[in-house]
Structures are given as C-alpha cells and as structure tokens.
Description:
Blueprint: H1 2-14, E1 24-29, E2 32-34, E3 39-46, E4 53-58, E5 61-65, E6 67-71, E7 74-79, E8 89-95, E9 105-110, E10 146-151, E11 154-156, E12 161-168, E13 175-181, E14 192-201, E15 206-211, E16 220-227, E17 237-242
Amino acid sequence: MLAELTLSWVTLASAPQAGDQALVLRSLEPESIPAFSPVTLTLHGEGFTRDCRVMLGVPGRMVPVPAQLVGADTLTVDLRLGLGPQPARRQVVVDCGSGRVTPPLPLAVEPPAARTSRGERPVSASVESAPPAPTEAVVVRATAPALERLEPAELPAGQAGIITVFGKDFAAGAVAKILANVNAGTSRAPQYEMKQFDTEVLSDTVLTVELDRGFAPSPRLRTVVVVNPDGGESTPLILTVIRRQP
C-alpha cells in the first residue's frame, strides 16, 4: 500500500503542470507596418495566458503595450496611434512571468511616403489654386491627457535613461516636457524651464521619454507633463532626481 502511494505521488509530481506549458512566439502579422498608421498586430504562438504581457521596443527600451488574449495561440495588440519611423526596426516579445519570456521577433516600421493619386506628383504649395469656399468656424476643444505614473519614478543625477509614462488620452505626436536647465552646457547662469524631450508615443496609454546624461546633474524634483498636438496639457507628475551612488 505504501509503495502504491509513493508511486502515485511520484507520478503526480512528474506530471506536467498547466503553468509549464511551452511558451512560443512563432510569428507576427503583419511583420512590417507603415509609420504613424493605426494597426492591429496579431501574435501567433503557443502557451499564451492572461498573465502574459506583450513588450515592444528595442533592446534596453522594451515597454508593455495593451494586448488582448484571443486564445492560447493568439494575442492581439491594438496600436491605435501607430509607431514613429525611428528606429526602423523594433522587436516584440511575450513575457508571461517567472522567467518565461519568448525570444524576440522583429517588427519593421516603414518611413512615411508621399501620397499621390494615380501616379501624379504631389502638387507644390507654390502653385496657385482657387481659394477654398468659406466655411463656418468650428470650435475644437483640446484633449488633455491624464498621467498616472512614471517608471522609474526616480533617476540618479547625471545618468541617461528612458522614462516610461503611463496614462490615457495620449495622441499621436504628443510630447513630454520636463523641468530642466535650458542653459546646461553653457557658461550662463542656470535657468529652469519646461523643456521638450525626445518622445515616442507607443499607444494612447504609453509613451517613452529619452533623457541624456546632462538632463539632471544634481538632485532635484522635476515636473513632467505631456502635451497633445491640439494643445491639451496634462496635470504634472514629479520625477525625483536622487543623489548618484559613488
């Protein structure tokens, strides 16, 4: 009887568990997308669960993007704002936690092309044309994005880094502005103003901001806002610049 129980325990312990299912990312559809165009990516593979996250970006700059689980073999990512043209090659991975991460698959971003009709050349802005018919004035209200959190929320002084901003209502072309010394690198006295930094909008809820080493040479609280192209501006979040460890 004891032998039977021991054998049963060994059999159960060696049986594969649901969480041990192989995680595989086989393909992306499409593999190439036009810049600044909304698109839905379909990820085909195996072993996807609700705990899995889709990460998009370049090495050292991978951020989560909103994804939907369609089945154990399919995930979809809705890039409602598209991606900018640089860098031209991104990568996509699926991270299901506990060290279960797929090897990356490449995603190409095509540069924007001039739109033509029936092979005609784009019309030069200098060519005279009839004035447009008068239209009624339309008042468009600016959409103010909302900020939820920064990752990381702290940055060592004098260190370059990537800040990921999470929120909602980010529009294509949104930019991040951070309180910074606009006279940095010059002999002029420090002057702190809201300065625009390189920003990439990955979705209407996620964007990244690239900071160089000269961004914050000394500890200080820095205000961060996001401004949409229509002028809508978020309320600020605080980025804490801490003393760099020796």
